[in-house]
Amino acid sequence: MSLAFSIRATNRVAASCLTVLLFASFARAQRASGEFIFLLASGFLCEPGDTSTCPCTVRANAGDSYEMTGAGTFDTQSKSVKAAGTYTHKSPNGNVLETGVWIASELVSFDSYGPAPNALPRQGVRFGPATTGPKRLPTLFGPMPTGGIAVLRIRFLPVQGASTTGVLQVNCALGDVPRERSVEGIRLTLERNNIEYSEELSGRVMFLALRPKISAPAKAPEQEAPETPGTPHN
Predict the structure, then answer these.
(1) What does residue 117 show for φ and ψ, rounded to 5 degrees?
(2) pLDDT per residue over 179-216, tens digit each?
(3) Is the pTM of this model over 0.85?
(4) Are 168 and 178 in contact (CB under 8 A)?
(5) Among 71-75, 88-92, 137-141, 177-181, which is the least confidently predicted range?
(6) Which residues contact 182 (CB under 8 A, 6 or more apart)?
(7) Which of 153, 207, 205, 186 has its CA nearest to residue 37?
(8) CA–CA–CA angle 166, 172, 177 (5° rounding)
(9) Which of 110, 143, 126 shows the shortest CA–CA distance to 28?
(10) In this predicted model, which residue has the larger pLDDT, 155 or 117?
């Protein structure tokens, strides 16, 4: 089996998994205030022909780079995470060294920069009351674009060779962004050799905070009116 065929097959499988994962995440929205969907150079963040949006690319001092895409959900209260994506490791001259899929195994931390309700106008999706024009999502219950930085422990599963682990930082530069994290993108540290990839080259990421579901108040049981003394019974 050729490497090119393996790469295409891996990307097709990963894309299918990401689609299922993403739609399942939206379907289970509005559950808890600590839940987030995140997109890593995927879905509506990608613009055809624009390599600055997808994939996310990060480079090490030695010149080699990682290109990554993905999607998933995490819960800041339970520290749980479900996320996956694809990756390609390239040499300084652009040759493919390794490709495969990655899976998140742990949410190490998440620091929010705050909500950014007007973050999606150029994708044709706006937040607010329904009007004519671009489709709008309800502000009360819809997922809210939010800035922040998530630190994930992930496992790389290459097409060939043994799996490895790493720590992935996903930075969405929306909201009240610290000056030192004003560049959107990813950073990566490989645990096998402690090599750091810290030069963000391209790629868009976004967190979507899920709103807590608000249930209608329970209807109080109707009470019969008290009988008036002297009222005859049937």
Answers:
(1) -65, -20
(2) 999 999 999 999 989 999 999 999 999 999 997 655 44
(3) no
(4) no
(5) 137-141
(6) 173
(7) 207
(8) 120
(9) 143
(10) 155
**Alpha carbons 24 and 52: distance in angstroms, whole number:** 27
Question: What amino acid occupies position 132?
Answer: T
Alpha-carbon span 95 to 116, nearest angstrom:
38
Q: Count of residues for the chain?
A: 234
Non-local CB neighbours of 31 within 8 Å, separated by 6+ positions:
210, 212, 213
Residue corresponding to tokens 């055809």: 48
What sign for the dihedral angle of Cα 6, 91, 186, 53? negative
Retrieve residue 99's tokens: 């490709």
Please, is 20 exposed, middle or buried when counting C-beta atoms within 10 Å of its C-beta (0-12, 13-18, 19+)? exposed
CA distance 151 to 141: 26
The predicted structure's pLDDT at residue 221 = 56
